[in-house]
Amino acid sequence: MEAAPALIPAYDFGLVQMAEDEFPLYQALVERLTGIHLAPIKMAMLSGRLAKRLRARGIVSYADYYRLIADGGEQEERQLAIDLITTNETYFFREPKHFDALREQLLPACRGQPMRVWSAACASGEEAYSLAMTLADGLGGNAPWEVIGSDISSRMLAVGRRGLYPMERAHHIPPDCLKRHCLRGTGDYMGQLLVDKALRQRVRLLPINLIEPLPEMGRFDAVFLRNVIIYFDSPTKRRVVNAVAATLKPGGWLVVGHSESLIGTPCELEMIAPTIYRKIR
């Protein structure tokens, strides 16, 4: 009896490759929507992150998916794509010297006054909660302080609002701080931690695109703008830094990532330590 022929899928979505003439379409779209410039070396990363959406929608080319999310296309799918493209790895108390400086220098100067801090690219919220832990320990849980976190990714903000994270994200949380502000998961939540509800209630997470006009949020004593402007071209970087610096109180701090610099950026800031700048007036 002759063997039945193997059934072969009409199209193997796992083999979809982005063509070189398709990449510039996404490059222009991402830069216009987010300010992020994707170098050609990022083509493999881009196609890998979007491949799951092609499979989910039954689309057989990146050109067809681009038409789905471009202007006039599906807004919800476009947001999903932006979430996938812009998501970056983060963890609690990343670049810990910034939190040391906040605790040792800025908090004593603001003690007794309402204090507001903005985590301007908070991803899934770990930086915002790290700031909240620092303020709670340095000023007290009942002191008048507030942390705002923002990100362009609605999916990441949803993770942050839940406050549930894998334990491997917590390696840099000091043990006593971890004990005060987090609950260790058990049973189905083994290997995870939950940020304490009292701390979560002091943190507001908002959807904000830094390259668009900023909403009215009041003035801040410190803004952490870390590991984001490195992805912008020079004009976009200047525009974003100036807009963010305008939200600072006189004497307020703007903190950028250790791989970033504000040299050549025209704004009313003076460097007081590497990657930490103070608003002059």
UniProtKB/TrEMBL annotation:
Listed EC numbers: 2.1.1.80
Binding annotation for S-adenosyl-L-methionine: N88, T90, R94, E127, D151, N209, L210, R226, N227
InterPro entries: Bact_Chemotaxis_MeTrfase (IPR050903), Chemotaxis_MeTrfase_CheR (IPR026024), CheR_C (IPR022642), CheR_MeTrfase (IPR000780), CheR_N (IPR022641), CheR_N_sf (IPR036804), SAM-dependent_MTases_sf (IPR029063)
Gene Ontology terms for molecular function: protein-glutamate O-methyltransferase activity
Keywords: Methyltransferase, S-adenosyl-L-methionine, Transferase
Source taxon at top rank: Bacteria
Domain CheR-type methyltransferase positions: 16-281
GO BP of this protein: methylation
Recorded catalytic activity of this chain's protein: L-glutamyl-[protein] + S-adenosyl-L-methionine = [protein]-L-glutamate 5-O-methyl ester + S-adenosyl-L-homocysteine
Role played: Methylation of the membrane-bound methyl-accepting chemotaxis proteins (MCP) to form gamma-glutamyl methyl ester residues in MCP.
PANTHER family: CHEMOTAXIS PROTEIN METHYLTRANSFERASE
Protein name: Chemotaxis protein methyltransferase
Lineage: Bacteria, Pseudomonadati, Pseudomonadota, Betaproteobacteria, Neisseriales
